[in-house]
TrEMBL record, chain B:
The keyword Cytoplasm applies. Belongs to the ATG3 family. The gene is LOC109707466. It comes from Ananas comosus (Pineapple). This is Autophagy-related protein 3. Coiled coil: none annotated. GO terms for molecular function: Atg8-family ligase activity. GO terms for biological process: autophagosome assembly; autophagy of mitochondrion; glycophagy; nucleophagy; protein transport. Gene3D superfamilies: 3.30.1460.50. Keywords: Autophagy, Cytoplasm, Protein transport, Transport, Ubl conjugation pathway. GO terms for cellular component: cytosol; phagophore assembly site. Residues 108-127 are annotated as: Disordered. The keyword Transit peptide does not apply.
Length: 331, 317
């Protein structure tokens, strides 16, 4: 597929990056030793991310010790930790880790996301759009952890094409921008909404902006209001939106049948809305008809790269976890 | 940990168990904070600098004297775009360093203020840089070279994953995925070496010294955890291994680099004195803003978000 549309270029999304805190592996180790044993059932986990807050560094999907408590029980209301549901598949041996059928695992997760889009679950719990998968093997003799993240993205065919993408401050009038900043900061400072990463922005004809939950979509229609589809953008790049927009666009196209989408990549500086860093873009979206069939399995991508290649990652915590080494360094 | 350090830690633990936490304010007299003042100052930091948040932490490590949901403060994913050593070279070239504590520069125990505006600290900067123009200037500090971390010798623990990679037929040729060369962090110009590390910076309350204490958890440019030893490249070389030590974090697992709090009270007292001598009455809920400016002298390259302008107290003019 060389050119999908006569209008505009293919919209390219910056992949999510993962970050795993040592505490996560320690908690997994004790869970495995004390509770799981050889049970390899999928473990529900919670990842956390926040909007980009620095013009030069993207934010990541982070796993912490607390990640083993599950959405919605996971800590909520913390603006710097928006919970996203995930699944951990921890295998008992290295060979079984290496021979996992990653393609079908990814498809299974993508199918779940498609189901959540079609059922309307996304409107109630928007975080499910960024659901992710981690496969791992924990070598508890050597305190080594092999792992691999997947951030499943439904692949639109043809891909979304980009008509326009500029800093929000250039797209909006000064009055609209000021009102949107205020509305975003309000949304981000209320514990009820601070950690909800997908939202709607309605801008009325008198330049007043409101931030609303996705389930208010029908209420926003009409009255000459301009609608922007907003999300917390972990990406810092000036010319590309981050990964969460992919499934969001699929959702908007499929659920609300909107073909021409104005989206808003929400980014911050010093923890406050920054409309110079935030982007507003416009894209054409046409989800495959096949996705309307509940049995369909959507094409998906999303296994994380390591150094530009498809590869798992490895972290050794022997230095800080191996009782023998600790005894030597303490002596 | 060396033996003397261990003995001291044990002593400190005992003292912490038998003495109640400070409840009466000694903020202006000693530069220290009571537990409730720490919570007050933390609340103010979180509300003014929302990238900071309170954490409840691991319930088994909870300190009973702090509220369960306010055990420590943390800000994540703070960029560190270059190593401290390069900053120090620039300051050397720019005319020297500013010592916060001029009393004993011979044994290098003073605090270096390598942040701020060294050459032209003008009048309107004064509120934010409380002590810069009253400081002695000490020249000729030795700049040590730092072995490069990016040589890739760290790989020995990693088993050969080549088979794993090549056995894959799942090559994702997706035109809507931005290719990896574009999504690395933006680097300073004229520099083809990746240097962007990120840090989680946390602040705990040290009951023994009655001051906040800063901890650094580092990640390399591919967001893999940094060994605490490598974190020392990002602290002022005058402090590496002296005031910055590697110890157990009270709430997080494992070893982390920390700015040792033994002189925090004394330095904070000096900063408060300078403010008061200028007619500024420091307010205890601003303690952490002052404290983080002071910490910036130890960790000059980690760009956390306290640099916004704040009134540090009420001016009595």
């Amino acid at each position: 597929s060389s050119s999908s549309s006569s209008h505009g270029r293919i919209l390219q999304f910056a992949p999510f990056q993962s970050l795993v805190d040592d505490g996560f592996w320690r908690r997994l180790s004790s869970l495995k030793l004390d509770t799981l044993g050889v049970d390899q059932s999928p473990i529900p986990i919670t990842g956390y991310y926040a909007p980009c807050s620095h013009p030069r560094v993207s934010n990541h999907m982070t796993l912490l010790a607390e990640s083993f408590s599950v959405v919605p029980e996971a800590p909520r209301g913390n603006r710097n930790r928006c919970p996203v549901p995930g699944v951990l598949l921890n295998t008992n041996t290295l060979p079984s880790f290496r021979t996992l059928d990653r393609e079908s695992l990814l498809q299974k997760e993508a199918k779940k996301i498609l189901e959540d889009i079609c059922s309307g679950k996304v409107e109630e719990d928007p975080g499910v759009l960024s659901s992710f998968l981690v496969i791992s093997y924990a070598d508890l003799k050597k305190w080594g952890f092999h792992y691999w993240f997947a951030f499943p993205a439904l692949v639109l065919d043809p891909p979304a094409s980009l008509l326009d993408l500029r800093p929000a401050s250039e797209v909006l009038s000064a009055e609209e921008a000021a009102s949107l900043s205020t509305a975003c900061n309000k949304w981000r400072s209320s514990t009820l909404t601070a950690d909800i990463p997908f939202f709607l922005v309605s801008i009325s004809s008198n330049s007043q902006a409101n931030v609303r939950p996705l389930k208010d979509w029908e209420v926003c229609q009409g009255d000459g209001q301009k609608i922007l589809y907003g999300f917390y953008d972990p990406c810092h790049l000036p010319n590309n939106p981050g990964w969460p927009l992919r499934n969001f666009l699929a959702f908007i196209g499929l659920r609300w049948k909107v073909g021409r989408v104005q989206f808003f990549c929400y980014r911050e500086k010093h923890g406050l809305a920054d409309l110079g860093l935030s982007l507003i873009g416009e894209a054409l979206v046409s989800p495959p008809e096949a996705w309307r069939d509940p049995q369909s399995v959507p094409k998906a991508v999303g296994w994380e790269l390591k150094g530009g290649k498809l590869s798992s990652r490895f972290i050794s915590l022997a230095e800080s976890m191996d009782p023998e080494r600790l005894a030597i360094s303490a002596a | 940990m060396v033996l003397s350090q261990k003995i001291h830690e044990a002593f400190k633990g005992t003292v912490e168990r038998i003495t109640g936490p400070r409840t009466v304010s000694a903020f202006k007299e000693k530069g220290v904070l009571s537990v409730s003042e720490f919570v007050l100052a933390g609340d103010n930091l979180v509300s003014k600098c929302p990238t900071w948040s309170w954490e409840a932490g691991d319930p088994s490590k909870r300190k009973s004297y702090l509220p369960a949901d306010k055990q420590y403060l943390i800000t994540r994913n703070v960029p560190c775009l270059r190593r401290a050593i390069s900053v120090e070279e620039e300051y050397e070239a720019g005319g020297g360093e500013y010592l916060l504590d001029g009393a004993d520069d011979d044994d290098n125990e003073g605090w270096l203020a390598t942040h701020g505006k060294p050459k032209e600290a003008k009048g309107d900067e004064e509120e934010n840089l409380p002590s810069i123009d009253t400081l002695e200037i000490s020249k000729g500090k030795v700049v040590q070279s730092i072995p490069s971390y990016f040589g890739g010798e760290e790989e020995e623990e990693i088993p050969d994953m080549a088979d794993f990679e090549n056995s894959e037929n799942l090559v994702e040729t997706d035109p809507a995925t931005l290719q990896p060369s574009y999504f690395v962090a933006h680097e300073p110009e004229d520099d083809n070496i990746l240097r962007t590390r990120t840090y989680d910076v946390s602040i705990t309350y040290d009951k023994y010294y009655q001051t906040p204490r800063v901890w650094l958890t580092g990640y390399d440019e591919s967001r893999m955890p940094l060994q605490p030893e490598l974190v020392l490249e990002d602290v002022s070389q005058d402090h590496a291994r002296k005031t910055v030590t590697i110890e157990d974090h009270p709430h997080l697992p494992g070893k982390h680099a920390s700015v040792h709090p033994c002189r925090h009270g004394a330095v904070m007292k000096k900063i408060i004195d300078v403010l008061m001598s200028r007619g500024v009455e420091p307010e205890v809920d601003k303690y952490l803003f002052l404290f983080l400016k002071f910490m910036a002298s130890v960790i000059p390259t980690i760009e956390y978000d306290y640099t916004m302008d704040f009134d540090l107290g009420s001016t009595s003019t």
